[in-house]
């Protein structure tokens, strides 16, 4: 059952996107804006180091720190891959050493299973896979081994006790030393159950231990099994009984990254089943929650409207739509959300759509990235300058409202711009990163596959850094090609590595650059000083067209922007 026509008409008439009267940016992203974003990062990052490290987060109004999610120096982990995206290899290398020496997961702390996964496990995995690019001296067997990978695995193993439930759906909190507390609530939000496949499947593929991917898949399928007859899932569920406790269905808080990970898991793993699950959900979402390019909250069994609100966390949705090729719908929804941004200089946590104003006690903006994230994805798909205008507005709003002497503060109330004494780690992991990538079209993250590295692993040659990166929900990029580097079972690895050590003493990893020819499948070696022969064993290769594909991978079975970008291997066809 859909909401009333009168509500639909009122939304259409009163909240149609308004045209911007400001000068439009050029089609080319602004270098000056990119450098302003860089300065934002270092203003926040340096004050974290000076005033808050080794605590999890900076308190920018009092210039000190606090632990929030488990005492992991969380901002340092979250900011690590952003350092490389900004080109700071020396600081990346320094932080890698600091984390190896200073982070301990064997502590008596109750930690969020969801947050530890996306921020800590995701951040360490991303940094591990980017280490060689950042000039870190990697060990024999990389990317199938390495200190950051071992740290990520250790953190993930601390989370595994949470999955030991009758349904396979995890508890929301786990004690890192003792496991799940006896009195722990069995009620977990949907996103807290369905947001593991990207990190856990990556771990399984790199380490050879299937347990991580297995528990993540079991949790995903448990949610799918317990969807309503009209195809929707609620907000919170009892992981012991599989009974829905909160039956509001939507795309925002408590549900959001479940849908995101069905799509990204499908792209990362080339998994038809995950994509099929999302597409079925997408039909139900359109049928019951979508009105005039807004998405409302409805009762999961009946489809009747329960909350006609827009939540700031929902702003990821246009970016997700772009990944499945639904760009037109994505742009229309994005423009709706952008009108809210222009109304307040940020996105309030809750926005009442019929009233066109904030919801009581939900007026804040903690510098969330979701609308900027969608702008980055959509700009890559469309090159529409409106998306750059959002980026410019975001830079100006954050600098004007949120910047203080010791960093950037959460906006407690967008109506009067009062600030709160917190700077969440995702500001450096996501918000600044997506802004920078929006204004830096030549960043290595946007690689189209024409340049890549070939590294030698214990299992043969492996293609890396060719593009198609899949961002986890904390904006930590995962190289999908890396999942194909470590296919052997873990028990076979050590025997192979012993044989490789002698080989490694004679021949180091090599970097290759391919320039695609305009009308045929040949490539040629680019002139790159890093690629010249050296005492390290590098050598030049000229690739010639032959009767078989040089490097190939199966064609994608579904359409999406990331899937296309993920086809980074050359194929003569």
UniProtKB/TrEMBL annotation:
Residue ranges of coiled coil: none
Keywords assigned: Calcium, Endoplasmic reticulum, Glycoprotein, Glycosidase, Hydrolase, Metal-binding, Unfolded protein response
GO molecular-function terms, A-Z: calcium ion binding; mannosyl-oligosaccharide 1,2-alpha-mannosidase activity
Annotated segments matching region Disordered: 517-554
Cofactor(s) the protein requires to work: Ca(2+)
Compositional bias segments (type: Basic and acidic residues): 517-541
Descriptive protein name: alpha-1,2-Mannosidase
Species the sequence originates in: Otus sunia (Oriental scops-owl)
Biological classification of the source: Eukaryota, Metazoa, Chordata, Craniata, Vertebrata
């Amino acid at each position: 059952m859909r909401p009333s026509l009168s509500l639909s008409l009122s939304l259409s008439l009163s909240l149609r996107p308004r045209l911007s009267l400001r000068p439009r940016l050029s089609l080319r992203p602004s270098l000056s804006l990119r450098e302003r974003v860089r300065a934002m990062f270092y203003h926040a990052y340096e004050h974290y180091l000076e005033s808050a490290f080794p605590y999890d987060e900076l308190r920018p109004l009092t210039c000190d720190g606090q632990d929030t999610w488990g005492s992991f120096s969380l901002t340092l982990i979250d900011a690590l891959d952003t350092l490389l995206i900004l080109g700071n290899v020396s600081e990346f290398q320094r932080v890698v050493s600091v984390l190896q020496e200073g982070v301990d997961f064997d502590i008596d702390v109750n930690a969020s299973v969801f947050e530890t996964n996306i921020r800590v496990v995701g951040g360490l995995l991303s940094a591990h896979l980017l280490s060689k690019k950042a000039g870190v001296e990697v060990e024999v067997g990389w990317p199938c081994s390495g200190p950051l990978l071992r740290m990520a695995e250790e953190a993930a193993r601390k989370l595994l006790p949470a999955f030991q439930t009758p349904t396979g759906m995890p508890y929301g909190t786990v004690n890192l030393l003792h496991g799940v507390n006896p009195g722990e609530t069995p009620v977990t939000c949907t996103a807290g159950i369905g947001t593991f496949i990207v990190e856990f499947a990556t771990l399984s593929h790199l380490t050879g231990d299937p347990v991580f991917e297995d528990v993540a898949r079991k949790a995903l399928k448990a949610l799918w099994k317990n969807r309503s007859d009209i195809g929707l899932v609620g907000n919170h569920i009892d992981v012991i009984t599989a009974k829905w406790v909160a039956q509001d269905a939507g795309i925002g808080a408590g549900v959001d990254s479940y849908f995101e990970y069905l799509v990204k898991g499908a792209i990362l793993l080339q998994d038809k089943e995950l994509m099929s699950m999302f597409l079925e959900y997408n039909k139900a979402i359109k049928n019951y929650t979508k009105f005039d390019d807004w998405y409302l909250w409805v009762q999961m069994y009946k489809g009747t409207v329960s909350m006609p609100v827009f939540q700031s966390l929902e702003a990821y949705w246009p970016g997700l739509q772009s990944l499945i090729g639904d760009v037109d719908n994505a742009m229309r929804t994005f423009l709706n959300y952008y009108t809210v941004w222009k109304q307040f200089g940020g996105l309030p946590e809750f926005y009442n759509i019929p009233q066109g104003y904030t919801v009581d006690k939900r007026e804040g903006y903690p510098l969330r990235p979701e609308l900027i994230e969608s702008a980055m994805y959509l700009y890559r798909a469309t090159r529409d300058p409106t998306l750059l205008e959002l980026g410019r507005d975001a830079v100006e709003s954050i600098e004007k409202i949120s910047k203080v002497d010791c960093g950037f503060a959460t906006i407690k109330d967008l109506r009067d711009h009062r600030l709160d004494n917190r700077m969440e780690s995702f500001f450096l992991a996501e918000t600044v990163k997506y802004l920078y990538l929006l204004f830096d079209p030549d960043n290595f993250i946007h690689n189209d596959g024409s340049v890549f590295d070939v590294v030698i692993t214990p299992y043969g040659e492996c293609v890396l850094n060719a593009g198609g990166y899949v961002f986890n929900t904390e904006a930590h990029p995962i190289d999908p090609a890396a999942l194909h580097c470590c296919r052997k079972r873990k028990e076979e690895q050590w025997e192979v590595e012993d044989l490789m050590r002698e080989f490694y003493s004679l021949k180091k990893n090599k970097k290759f650059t391919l320039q695609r020819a305009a009308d045929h499948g040949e490539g040629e070696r680019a002139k790159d000083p890093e690629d010249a022969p050296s005492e390290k064993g590098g050598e030049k290769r000229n690739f010639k067209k032959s009767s078989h594909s040089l490097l190939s991978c199966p064609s994608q079975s579904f359409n999406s922007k990331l899937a296309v970008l993920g086809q980074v291997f050359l194929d003569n066809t």
